# Entry
Amino acid sequence: MPNRRVLRGLYAITDPQLTPLPSALERIEQSLRGGARLLQYRDKGDDHERRLREALSLRELCHRHGAQFIVNDDVRLAHESGADGVHLGRDDVDVATARGMLGADAIIGVSCYDRLELALAAAAGGADYVAFGSFYPSGTKPAAVRADPSLIAAFKRQADLPVCAIGGITPDNAPTLIAAGADMLAVIGGLFAQADVEMQASRITAAFDRA
# Structure
């Protein structure tokens, strides 16, 4: 079982198109072998039983590699699958509700886009980390609002909470975000759209090692 309070490093996020399960399980494991410390299961389909099977499989895989397993959006699924936590977006339940369902030890992250006030409210409400982005053009969410790396430092001046950066992250721009204060780098296409997932994961992980 991983240490639930170590929130730093590469944060891999699955995608139904790039990592269809179960066929992509090997590619997901490659990201963990390459150094991903967290994995988020992101699937907004309405087949709960399928999603539960997949979440259980990914939780086992993550824990085998000492990584955290996070479910995107769905607090019920996070609870039923025994996930380490949940990541909440704009239209999801609030932190207090998620905490009530998942317990004090659960990791609860909150998407804050390009808005400092959302992040400060999430911190005050008991979130374990906040996420900003998109920092760079993203193939997964091409219409996402754009955040500036200075937002990370602005938040850190006012709150003592880990920050996750997302959006178009590559080994080349990862050092810029880490230098700005990002504790985690969430990557989808920059990881799973690559030919060698393990190598790409290790290159992003190396940026943390050098910081």
The chain has a mean pLDDT of 94. The CA atoms of residues 75 and 98 lie 6 Å apart. The chain has one domain: 9-210. The two ends are 26 Å apart (CA to CA).
